[in-house]
Each structure stands twice: as structure tokens, then as C-alpha cells.
Amino acid sequence: MLLSRKIAIVGSGTAGLQLAYALRNDFEVTVIHAYSSEKIKNGRVMSTQVHFGSTVKREEKFQMPFWKEADPLQSVHISIRDQKLFVGNLKEPAYSINQRLYFSRGMEELEMDNVKFKQVRVQEEHLDQLIEEFNIVIDCSGKAGPLFSFPIIEELSPFKLPQRKCIVGYFNGIKSNDPLGVGVTILPGLGEMFEIPALTNKGPITILFIMAIPEKELDCFKGVKTSEQFTDRMKDTAHSYFPSIYERIDKNQFTLADSLSFLQLAISPVIRRPYTHYTNKIVLGCGDSVFLNDPITGQGCNLSSYCAEKLYETLLQYKHSEWDLKLGEDYWDAVRPMVEKVTKWTNAMTQEMPPHIIQLLLSGKSSQKTADKIAEWFAEPEKAYNDFFQQSIQI
Ligand SMILES: Cc1cc2nc3c(=O)[nH]c(=O)nc-3n(C[C@H](O)[C@H](O)[C@H](O)COP(=O)(O)OP(=O)(O)OC[C@H]3O[C@@H](n4cnc5c(N)ncnc54)[C@H](O)[C@@H]3O)c2cc1C
Fold it and tell me: Which residues form the Styrene monooxygenase StyA putative substrate binding domain (predicted)?
């Protein structure tokens, strides 16, 4: 009998867990992770997340946990400064569940379903043994990675420095926008605010996510260390820059969901070819370890999920053939068009908006069809790419 091939997935985040769910019935899967599910559940928030329609469909296909327990997000609200432009409707609802809850639940479920888990923070000295022990290693170590030297694709990696500071807090005491959806407020020259209703283990909350252009006025959380300082600074910032959010804040109830539900970081986007050799074997990358974009377009989880599905399909095609360079090339060919479109759109969103996009946003105010089309950018980033880079826009 042909023994099942052994796959090591390093990382138990968005990409690693979806891959483990997808691959568990066809291969012997081991997830190697830095933190226990308990530690993730009770640790600091890691991100924000909105899983749009196609991602939710993949999660259903692979029987992943519980996205639909959260309230459906049906719309995207777009404002420029304090002017509300429009509410665009999403064709399919999106869902946002705190990754602490989602990852820990996924790990617990998979462990009961024949997936092995090994808690190790993988470092260089572990790589030889990993390569020896498994038929293939997939690096899903996220933005902390990569663990292998996947070559950088220079044409998709134009920035050497972060284009935004990410300032995230999960808050109680904000009346949700209506209809429930993701709020995007653009402050030209300063940055953006994303307002995202989400589910946590303490119930529904609202994420306030500032993306500040470094060293401009919105980059005003320097030196903020404690949860109290963070809450106060967020309230002051909403008051000064985001009046329509400030109006919905209940000043007595406005608190962080818990003392670890805030985060500040900055990402230097970089795109890498997701396969390389290590000693005598091919290694693969999936998710942020190889496709690291700025979070401004909210595509990181969706792109990770897309690429995880393509990698799953490629590995199934190669189930009975040799795992060589050709497998890596086929996987890269399958994901490259989407990676390029998401990356180019995301990079463009961090820069000054082109005039035809400003015009399109403004026309969303008087045309619901245009408003809906813009909302769909986030669910179907190929459409955003077309609108940004093909000048004759069909409305
Ligand atoms: C502030 C912020 C906001 C964001 N908002 C959104 C959003 O709204 N929508 C969206 O779609 N995306 C968003 N993203 C991006 C999204 O979170 C990531 O793209 C997505 O989680 C990537 O999945 P991943 O599996 O590659 O990495 P992760 O989910 O980060 O998982 C990486 C895993 O690898 C583990 N790991 C790392 N190093 C090692 C090691 N050496 N050994 C063992 N394990 C290791 C980590 O502990 C973790 O479990 C945001 C990101 C940030 C930073």
C-alpha cells in the first residue's frame, strides 16, 4: 500500500489552518506552531479581518469553523473627510471573527480530526530536520517569516518602507453603522479609518482601525503604551478627525474589549516567489510569508485563503507524482495573476488616488450602481484592479 505523504505546515494562522483543513483527508498533515491554542485565545489581537463571499465559500467547502455565527456585513460605507459619499451593497455577505477565536477553535477542531500539532517556534537550526522528516514543508509563518529564502519579485515590491502605521483597537460602546457594514473614511494626505463590526469571545464589538501615513498628523499614537492611553487617544482622534464615528461613541461605555485588544505595527510590503529549494527538496510558501501586502485593502486573509485553495488543488494534482520544481511552478502560475492584481491595487491605494478613481468615488454618491460596484472591489479585487488600471471605466 502507498503510504500517505507527510506534509509539514509551519504556522497556524489563516493560510496554515485553511491548508490543514483542505489537505487533512489526502495527506498526513502536521501543523507546527509557535503558540498553543489557549495562548492564542487569550493573547493579543493580531489583526483585523473581513472574510468576503468567496473566502466564506472556501471555508464552507473545507468545513472550517463558524464564520456564520457573526452578524453578516452587507455593505461598505465610504466617506471622504466628514462627507458621507455612499453605502455600497455587497453581493454576498462578509463576516468578521476575531482571529484569536477563529484560530484557536480551528486548532482544537483539527487536533480532534487526525491532524498532528507540534508546538515549536521554528528557527534556522530546525530546518534540516524538518526537511528530512517531511515530504514537503509549507511555510505559512506569516509576516514574521519567511523561514526560507524565497526570492523577492522586485517588480511587485516597490516599497522599502511601510506606507502606513496600523493602529487597531477592538471597542465596546460604539453604535454600529446602519446598515451593518465596513466603514471606510479617507482623509487625503493623512490616511484612513476602517470601522469593522466583529465577533469576539465576549460578543459583538466594533474595530476601529486607523491607517496613518507615517509622520503626518494622523500618526498620533506614538508613545501610547497602556490600554487606557490607547482608549483615550482613540477617543480624541475620533473627535478631531472622524466626527461621524465620534457621534456614535457612548462616552461612558467606550472601552477596549479587553486589555490585549489593541495593536500598533507597520508593514513593509514584499512579494516573493512562493517556491524554492532547501537542500534536496522543494519548499513552498503560502500567505503573508510570501505575499505580504499592506492591510489597506483588507485582502490579506482573502488572498491567503485563495492561495491556500490553489495550493491544495496543485498538491492534489501531484498526489501520485514527484514533488519537484514543476509543482512549485504550477502553483505559482495558478496564483500569480491574482497576487499581481491584489498587490498592484493595494500598492495604488497607499498612494495619492488617481483622478479617475476620485471621480468614480464621487459619482457613487448619485449612482447606487456605482456605489455597489465600488463595494465589490473588496470582495472581488480583480474588479478594483480593472477600475484602477484600465482608464475606460464601465459604470
Ligand atoms: C493590522 C492588520 C490588519 C489587517 N486587516 C485585515 C483585514 O481587515 N482583512 C484581511 O483580509 N486581512 C487583514 N490583515 C492581513 C491578515 O491578517 C493576514 O494577511 C493573514 O492573517 C495572513 O495569514 P497567514 O496565515 O499568512 O499569517 P498569520 O495569520 O499571521 O499566521 C502566521 C502563523 O505563523 C506562526 N508563526 C510565525 N513564525 C513562526 C515560527 N517561526 N514557527 C512556528 N510558527 C510561526 C504565527 O504564530 C501564526 O500562527 C491585516 C493585517 C494586519 C497586520
Answer: 142-248
11 Ramachandran zone, left/alpha/beta (phi>0; psi -120 to 50): left
Between CA 305 and CA 46 the distance in angstroms is 17
The answer to whether the beta carbons of residues 251 and 231 sit under 8 Å apart is: no
Separation CA 198–CA 333 (nearest Å): 34
How do strand 275-278 and strand 281-285 relate by DSSP bridges?
A: antiparallel
- Find the helix packing angle between 99-111 and 14-23, rounded to 10°: 30
Mutation test residue for ligand 1: of 30, 117, 288, the one with most atoms within 8 Å of CB: 288
Give me the architecture of the 6-49+98-159+269-349 domain, per CATH. Answer: 3-Layer(bba) Sandwich (3.50)
Q: What is the pLDDT of residue 390?
A: 82
CA dist 259 → 44, 206, 225, 253, 256 (Å): 8, 15, 11, 15, 7
Ligand 1 pocket, mutate which of 141, 168, 199 (most atoms under 8 A from CB): 141
pLDDT number for residue 1: 38
SS3 (DSSP) at 1: coil
Segments of the chain scoring below 70 in pLDDT:
1-3, 66-68, 391-395
Domain positions in the chain = 6-49+98-159+269-349, 165-266, 355-389
Write the residue with the smallest CA distance to atom 23 of ligand 1. Answer: 14
Average predicted confidence (pLDDT) for the chain: 95
CA distances from 185 to 15, 83, 157 (A): 29, 9, 26
What residue ranges line ligand 1, CB within 6 angstroms?
Answer: 10-16, 32-35, 47-50, 121-122, 140-145, 147, 166, 168, 265, 287-289, 295, 298-302, 304
165-266 shares the fold of 6-49+98-159+269-349 = no
* Helices vs strands, H then E, count in the chain: 12, 16
CATH number, span 165-266:
3.30.9.40
Report the nearest-CA residue for atom 38 of ligand 1.
141
